[in-house]
Amino acid sequence: MGDILPPAYTNSTGTPPWLNNGDNAWQLTAATLVGLQSVPGLIILYGSIVKKKWAVNSAFMALYAFAAVVICWVTWAYKMSFGYKLLPFWGRAGTALDQVFLLGRSKLPATHTSRHAMIEPYFPTAAMVWYQGMFAAITMILLAGSLLGRMNIRAWMMFVPLWLTFSYTVGAFSLWGGGFLYQWGVLDYSGGYVIHVSSGIAGLTAAYWVGPRLKKDRERFPPNNILLTITGAGLLWMGWSGFNGGGTFSANLGSSLAVLNTNISAATSLLMWTLLDVIVFGKPSVIGAVQGMMTGLVCITPGAGFVQGWAAIVMGILGGSVPWFTMMIIHKNWTPMQAIDDTLGVFHTHAVAGLLGGILTGIFAHPRLTKISLADQDERGAIYGGAGALQIAKQLVGGLFVIGWNIVVTSLICVLIRLVIPLRMSEKELLIGDDAAHGEEAYALWGDGEKYDSNVHGRSVENPNNRSVGATQVV
């Protein structure tokens, strides 16, 4: 690991001359905001948007994924995403634990000749490791949204480290860590491709291999608490300021613009989705509004710091209408899509919205704004002339690479796990839900004819010592 505190850093303040305290503080804040999107944001959203019998399982899938990714990230996956080149699309595995403790300037290693200047933030590498780790964690949790209500929890425990290692790190290195897509100039400001297209495509692919929920669950799957669903969604929305605002690795003009554009697009998309629900179905749907919020956030992510405010409104309009159309019209009327049980529609809200945002970034990216984040790169949207028309082609190729890689690798991982353990719960477990999978239930409520069982539910409030109470007591 080397000397944790080299002589150059042993001054009384602990602040080396190159460190920008403002950038460091913002990066740590942004990382925390992204972390809060997962814990507790998506845990609350997943635990409340599903049937009551799946609340614990859905929340736990998110909680487990967060913890597992953090350990895998610092042990080997960070270096595979932002380390020295092994292949044009993959970094060399290695521990980042020394980076967590060593106070060193964070710099993406210049491992290959490039026409692009490598990004060199003015904060410790530990801040970069943590910020990027939060991105990796939320990607895994978003993917889980496609598999809620039937995946074997033990299979999920195996799936998380395998997919992180062989899928996420490839997209991250290719587009952010100096890989071939980065070299070619594909734009992905804060994860439209790396996070959202990959989680949406991988989620749909895994859903195919895992198989569907019970028929009655697919036909009727009401949220157990819509108010908590809105609460989880609200944490996602507010946390997205860190998600996109930290993408410049500096508290500069680009980060401020990214935060503003993010919220403009989200609000516009939510209103657009709600308007379409009213026009077509006659009522505004709360769940629909949450989906519209999500697609607006996802759509702006590839270009949050690259586009002007008016473009963010356009991206919000399209982000709230194109995924609405694919989910509400195409999905419901196309048999192949109906055959795959994507529980929360992650394909539409993330893959479709993310790819759409990437293409729109190729149209609207302002050349002066791309320079703020990308040093000497000269990427620009098609509307700004020059080589801008080529940018759309670059964005399409980048998206297709992420799509193709995730379909193949996710399939291989699922097939491999299936050789060891079933991907799907047994029919008995699917009928019972949380109690069968975890021995726990989300709500200690005994209405609807249920009976209080002291062996299962513990002591009652009225009779904490269980004296003079039979085996069951109707509450």
TrEMBL record:
> Which protein family is named in the record?
Belongs to the ammonia transporter channel (TC 1.A.11.2) family.
Q: What is this protein called?
A: Ammonium transporter
Native source organism of the sequence: Beta vulgaris subsp. vulgaris
Segments passing through the bilayer: 25-47, 59-78, 128-148, 160-181, 193-211, 223-240, 260-279, 286-304, 310-331, 343-365, 400-421
Biased amino acid composition, Polar residues: 462-475
Q: Where in the cell is it found?
A: Cell membrane
* Ranges for region Disordered: 456-475
Q: What is its main location?
A: membrane
Lineage of source species: Eukaryota, Viridiplantae, Streptophyta, Embryophyta, Tracheophyta
Q: Which PANTHER family match?
A: AMMONIUM TRANSPORTER MEP2
